[in-house]
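Lab meeting tomorrow. Look over both lines:
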Amino acid sequence: MSIAVASYAFSRPDRVAVPTRERVLQTAAALGYAGPDATARALRLGRPNTITLLGSDRAVDLLSDYAAIEVARGLARACDRVGASLVLGGHGGGPSVCFRAAPPARSEPAVLIDPPAPTDDAVVRADLADGVAAAARHLANLGHTRLAVIAWSGCGERLDGARIGWGARRPIEVIMAPGPNRIDGEPSGRAVLALSPAPTAILALSDPLALEVLDAATHTGLRVPEDLSVVGVDDLPGSAALRLTSVFVPYRPMGEQAGNLLWSILDGAAVPPAHLLPTQLMVRATTGPARPRTRET
């Protein structure tokens, strides 16, 4: 039979008669042939077989960012599907997925996840403003009237959501951290608890920053949620075990969707509008009704 029929038996079984497909599969099994090699198919189609995941920092920094790790897991699934390899960081050529980073200055296609600035490149993002607004409304509905937000430069959509959900009539105090990671949150956690008047609720715009607030509250003798409600954003692995109220951001699906989108562009598809994935507020044990603050002795 023709090469095309044998190929369709594996890749498009709906186009091959059942008896013919069974003959192909039986012969393949007898020869020890498991099916088409995805990497070979990519080479035959003229596709690159390496995708680079780029961040704003070095490759080693991607490995310390739990959100980037989840993105990488989703992107790896998309790469496995087409027989491509995934490279973390680096500055080589080839198509790339950029996480919270601008695309490199080269002509190869790129897909951006949570870009730091408006762009004409393909974009995959989560509806962060809506999710953070839901978190701020949750705190307001619990009766909190003094909210502090820990933000960082480049998190504008998250901060906008906090302001929208909290409402313009209520005061809001913003503390700027150097970045979204836990090492950035240590001084910010102490600073936010030293505010006067003291906030009864803190919305940290990333989970690592929220965890630093919880540590600072423990060291200061504050009880969570009796004296202080704390909310994070990301819902990273481990946040549920710590019972942290957080906004779930679908990083792994975002990585997979970015990979699929990049392959479509490499196949000649036009750059589509930004993909917007939903977020969800996960209410757990670190938020409760506002009460007069007390300290343990």
Observations:
- The first helix runs from residue 3 to 11.
- The mean pLDDT is 87.
- The first strand starts at residue 50 and ends at 54.
- Residues 128-249 form a domain with the Rossmann fold fold (CATH 3.40.50.2300).
